[in-house]
Amino acid sequence: TLFIVLSAFLSAQSYHGKAGKAIKGATVNVGAMALDTITDYSNFSGIKTPNKNWKAPDFKTNPDRIIYQEAPSPQRANKPASREVSPAPTRDFLSLEDNQRSIPPDVMGAAGPNHLMTTLNTEVRIQDKEGNVLMTTALGNFWRPLPGTTGTFDPKILYDPYNDRWIMTTPSGSNVNESKLYIGVSTSSDPMGDWNFYWVDTDASNIAWFDYPSIGFNKKWITVSGNMFGGDYYRTVFVFDKMAAYNGDEDINYTRFATYEGFTLVPSITYDNQAEDQYLIATGDGDQNGYGYIKKFKLSGELNNPVFEYQGDIGIPEPWSGWGGDYGNFLPQLGSSQLINSVDARMETVIYRNNKLWAVHHVFLPAGDPQRCAVQWWELDTDGIILEHGRIEDQSNTFSFAFPSIAVNANEDVMIGHNVFSSTQYAGAGYSFKAYYDDPNSMRTYYQYKEGEAPYYKTYGGDRNRWGDYSAACVDPENDIDFWTIQEFAMMPQGGDTWGTWWAMVKPSFSPVADFTSDETIIPTGESVNFTDLTIGVPSEWQWEFEGGVPAVSSEQNPQNIVYLNEGTFTVTLTASNVLGTDVVTKQQFITVSSSILPEISFSADVEKVCVNQPVHFTDSSLYSPIQWEWQFDPSTVTFING
Questions:
Q1: Strands 581-594 and 522-524
Q2: Max CA separation in the chain (angstroms)
Q3: Residue among 171, 199, 195 at smallest CA distance from 185
Q4: What is the location of CATH 2.60.40.10 in the chain?
Q5: In whole angstroms, what is the distance from residue 218 CA to residue 141 CA?
Q6: Which of 434, 407, 402, 433 is CA-nearest to residue 419?
Q7: In terms of DSSP H, where are the helices of 158-227?
Q8: Is 31 helix (H, G, I), strand (E, B) or coil?
């Protein structure tokens, strides 16, 4: 049973924004950086300077500001965890390794149609989706045309599938006099192409400096929030004109808001190109009168005159602690008594999709006396009503899960990437999955796709064994179905204890949608055809029927060498199945077989202007399955090599 404190009786708290302009620093070809090898990293991406406010305060909830509370439920409290394991990755591979220049790495990445881009405190790397490295450069070198790039940290990156652009942000200067915020947007879906770079002074009065950006977008805005430290302590939200940045305008408008409400306000990544508004979520007090709360904010209004509102708090009767004590060193590991730092319970990722919000962070349990770390996820409607929520946890306190990131695909499957910690293993990389048809409030058992390899302890003389501070999970924009995540893991030491980062791709199963293609559709009699399955939904069984073909049926996924002996036009049928369902596709008169068809001759050469005695390779590309070839060359004084 649920009860609601109606937000209709509350008036949202609005904030006055200050208009400004981000300065265009340059248009840069990122692919050219692959040719600009940096061997001396001394001027770029030095050891991150941690802020001194290592414990966020508890932001108490005003009872008059509660917009929704969930009533206690014994059934929910006693609900057993799912025994079904999350699906294994389709592929996984190394991204960037520790170059012994930063703790933590601040793990972040995104997937485009053809590329993966990893952005860490140390370096930026672009790979293809097979893991081949295309470009690597220092983080500071990536932003080199902008002022102050020797002090970069905390990079974040997203891919906008509606405009086919990469969006990246990075602060620079962890002091009040030099604090800047960089914004970069690609000019196409190719991250190796041109980017437009902009920057802003985060506080013109030089009272506070900007830390820990969170980034999101909708059809109008790129929104970047951060925590301000120094002579004042508050949160700031920059709202940039997205299309102006995409167009490469010399200066782009932004509106800057400031609030003392909440900590780490995370703007939504908006998978709806019609949605006018954008939402932000932050953690509130995790343990107040038996409840834990999160805070909800909203951006609305005109492009260059946005309205920023604090709407209120949302609570569940399952409290948590906001940190683990001991300067945050809390997470266990095998082979060392040194605990790994868990930071705090700040919000990490917010997704808007289908008029719903998904959010994720990690929390410390039980409240008041933490013994373990758990990933906590939320699904809300846009009024703040809780639709689902849950935790990835081990109530035996053997395993802890931390530094999560969440992604939601077109079917509303959910994947949460996270780290796995235990005194029985080294720090590893994993994820947890929830299919759209799984039980409400549930998440499947985690899958650890990259095991840790060694203990990890590295403080550079400080008091925190830093890890994280975050990770990334995203949907593949190529089909809006598959997932990618990049996580940190403990590597074998290389000149000191070492972290590494590792990508994983996951293809969710759903009821199949059958489709196929073939290498030929018009052939001479007696020739063969090869068929390729294009079904989506991860089928496990295939049944083919080939009218006029030999063999006439097949249960292979991709049947090869189906021979057609007689003239005619023939139908092909594919039935694809998995445990969730079956789909059939029939393509009428798909294959045409003729006894009078002649090849359509075509060929090419690898070079057309050659020197004497230089070999030339010719390739036949004739249509309709030729079975015999006779080449003639003029002049005929040529020598054949290998036939």
A1: parallel
A2: 95
A3: 195
A4: 509-643
A5: 29
A6: 402
A7: none
A8: helix
Burial 141-155 (b: 16+ CB within 10 A, else e): bbbbebebbebbbbb
Q: With contact defined as beta carbons under 8 Å apart, do 239 and 257 qualify? A: yes
Residue type, 422: S
Tally Cβ neighbours within 10 Å of residue 347. Answer: 23
Closest CA to 548 of 532, 527, 533: 527
Both tokens of 402, joined, read 């931390």
Name the nearest CA neighbour of 146 among 27, 39, 20, 41.
27
Pick 7-506's CATH classification: 3.40.50, 3.30.300, 2.40.160, 2.130.10: 2.130.10
Structural contact between residues 166 and 158, judged by C-beta atoms closer than 8 angstroms: yes
State the DSSP H helix or E strand holding residue 325, giving kind and residue range, or none if neither: none
In the DSSP assignment, the letter for residue 321 is: B
Candidate CATH numbers 3.40.50.300, 3.30.1300.10, 2.60.40.10, 3.10.450.50; the one for domain 509-643: 2.60.40.10
Please name the residues in contact with 517: beta carbons below 8 A apart, sequence gap of 6 or more: 531, 532, 534
> b/e map of 357-387 (b: 16 or more CB within 10 Å)?
bbbbbbbbbebeebebbbbbbbbbebebebe
* Average confidence (pLDDT) per 10 residues, the chain, 643 residues: 46 90 97 66 50 66 95 73 88 97 96 99 98 96 93 97 99 96 98 98 96 98 97 96 98 97 97 98 97 98 98 98 91 98 97 99 97 99 98 98 99 98 99 96 98 97 94 98 98 95 96 95 93 94 98 98 97 95 97 88 90 86 81 78 56
CA distance 87 to 434: 10
And the tokens for 6? Answer: 């109606």
Q: Where in the chain is the domain with CATH 2.130.10?
A: 7-506
Q: Could you tell me which residues are beta bridge partners of residue 553?
A: 545
For 276, list phi and psi in degrees, rounded to 5.
-85, -30
